[in-house]
Design brief:
Elements lengths: L10 H9 L9 H11 L8 H11 L1 H23 L16 H13 L1
Helix pairs in contact: 3-4
Length: about 110
Amino acid sequence: MNGTNPDGRDERLTAVLGRWKGVEPRPDFEALVWARIRNGEAAERPGWFDDARDWIFVRPAWATAMAASLAILIGALAGLVSAPPHRPHAEPLLHPQTLAGSYLALVERGAR
């Protein structure tokens, strides 16, 4: 207890506070402070959101990698869900993405 009186008061703190002019704390200020310390009124434990926010700001490289991985995963899932169902064609040469298949589609549309 460096610089502390036997009654628990810090001499240096008392000297610094004594130099302030025009600032008078409430008469029961010291008693209230010691009561709060005894009661242990600590801040409430942060929730999962606060923990996640702290983790992101402490480890930005990991957070960026996780965000990129999540974006790739969401994009891949969206692509799988929105893709048209695969319909196998009877004749692979007449597939619409081949030259013969696109020619056949043109001819059929022109014949109508």
